[in-house]
Amino acid sequence: SGTDAANLAHFYAGSCYIKLDDNANAIKYLKDFNSDAKQIQQRAYKLLGDASADLGKNADALDYYKKAGRHFEEDQASSAEALFLAAYLADRVMKDQKEAIALYKELKEKFPRTQQGFEADNYLAQLGVYNVN
């Protein structure tokens, strides 16, 4: 323990446990992972969000998705995907419209040229932000 190899092993083990649908172990290993490589850390946060959501830990999942979406914004595709997952979770699962609206607006503002950025308007309209009348 305490080596770079051991740290990276936590990431790989967590990723493998997600593939095996053992989300509790995935969370255990991914929480022990920490990296200065922003892309990899962003991926770890997203995987933590996925595992938490699968276990019904929606508040934790929301936090991890938001971390992933804001951790390395230079990777617009991954950041937009994570923010979209956060917004969708807040809207459809947690029924927190205020949080969902804020996240969809953030997504649209920060990543307007991504697929999720284009789709944000549709979800904002469903939430009553835009009136057609």
Present the secondary structure layout.
Blueprint: H1 4-19, H2 23-31, H3 38-54, H4 58-71, H5 76-93, H6 97-110, H7 115-126
Number of helices: 7
Q: Spans with pLDDT under 50 lasting ≥5 residues?
A: none
Main β sheet profile: none
Q: What share of the residues lie within helices?
A: over 70%
Q: Would you list the SSEs in sequence order as H and E?
A: HHHHHHH
- Write down the overall geometry: globular
Radius of gyration: 16 Å
How would you classify the helix and strand content by structural class? mainly alpha
What is the terminal separation in angstroms? 62 Å
Tell me, rounded to a whole number, the average pLDDT: 96
In total, the number of strands is: 0
- Provide the β-strand percentage band: under 5%
Describe this structure in words.
The chain has 133 residues and is an all-alpha fold. The protein is built from 7 helices and no strands. α5 (76-93) runs parallel beside α7. It is globular.
Question: Could you list some keywords that capture this structure?
Answer:
7 helices, mainly alpha, globular, 75% helix, 133 residues
Short description:
The protein is mainly alpha-helical. It has helices at 4-19, 23-31, 38-54, 58-71, 76-93, 97-110, 115-126. Helices cover 75% and strands 0% of the residues.
